[in-house]
């Protein structure tokens, strides 16, 4: 049927059911010849230790204190935190005082009274945010990324994440724990020493809040978990599966925006890191090693990405937050997102600009094609082949 709609040929939009956003797919554009440059980028020396790295063992940090001579993972408070545990509570009066202070002599009264006051209350919505941020070094080795670490070493990283989540869940200022890794200069990462950050806040940030609301709506409509249903669907269809083990799948989401975006999803419904069994901890480390290794092998380069964990709200501050859906603490289905920027080679990246800033996200390579390319990559790191 020459006139039938083909997903691999015809432009279409795909909806992200987690965030209710859309991505425009233009698959015919990916039929241009693949120029995939396979040459290695110059990675230079890969020192295990750098005297001026503030994350390496024994080195001083900006605060003056020195890192311990750590041998596995190492957690410390971010020296430049995005927020603090304690600050005055936000009140609407603060907004009016702020507005008054920015209008000079004449008109100051008008700006904070009557109709303008009511408009301002509608348009300038503010919430105070308290929290804390920590840094987790994955390894004392300055150049050893997840892709090159052993599964056992990554198990230590996963256990550190879990210990941090359990401890933060007891803190009064915590409602959400966001663990994320920015890797590579392309993602604005200032230091190649393998590390991630943990931002714990007393609010639920926008992305997990949108997902929680989607999980709730889906459960109301179908009576089941959105991600349990999605994982089962992808395991049946297999087109977008990259790899799997007993506990997790790695998939290029149907609605992926970034060319080689993936999601790691727990096969069994699990809402939070702290609920993972020993077997699941091992399997999460296993699939993290395998996908990061495939990424590095794709363009024979240390693959940049932003990666993060989405889990149920935790901590006392979640109880009073409507975004937390505290009435159903089991609503969220644990998953990890990888958002890598590379498109065609170690140096050719995708930018979300133009139509993507003004219209909506767009991609050429389909999710199915990306999964096929990742499936073809080895799970032995190129540096060890
Ligand atoms: Zn270092
Ligand atoms: Zn589920
Ligand atoms: Zn998510």
TrEMBL record:
Keyword Nucleotidyltransferase applies: yes
Domain Galactose-1-phosphate uridyl transferase N-terminal: 5-205
Start and end residues of each stretch annotated as Disordered: 93-114
Pathway(s) where this gene product acts: Carbohydrate metabolism; galactose metabolism
GO MF annotations in UniProt: UDP-glucose:hexose-1-phosphate uridylyltransferase activity
Compositional bias annotation for Low complexity: 97-109
CDD domains: GalT
Entry cofactors: Zn(2+)
EC number: 2.7.7.12
Residue stretches making up the Galactose-1-phosphate uridyl transferase C-terminal domain: 212-384
Swiss-Prot/TrEMBL keywords: Carbohydrate metabolism, Galactose metabolism, Metal-binding, Nucleotidyltransferase, Transferase, Zinc
Name of one Pfam family that matches: GalP_UDP_tr_C
Catalysed conversion reaction: alpha-D-galactose 1-phosphate + UDP-alpha-D-glucose = alpha-D-glucose 1-phosphate + UDP-alpha-D-galactose
Family: Belongs to the galactose-1-phosphate uridylyltransferase type 1 family.
Cross-referenced NCBIfam families: galT_1 (TIGR00209), PRK11720.1 (NF008724)
Name of the featured protein: Galactose-1-phosphate uridylyltransferase
Organism: Polyrhizophydium stewartii
Gene that this sequence comes from: GAL7
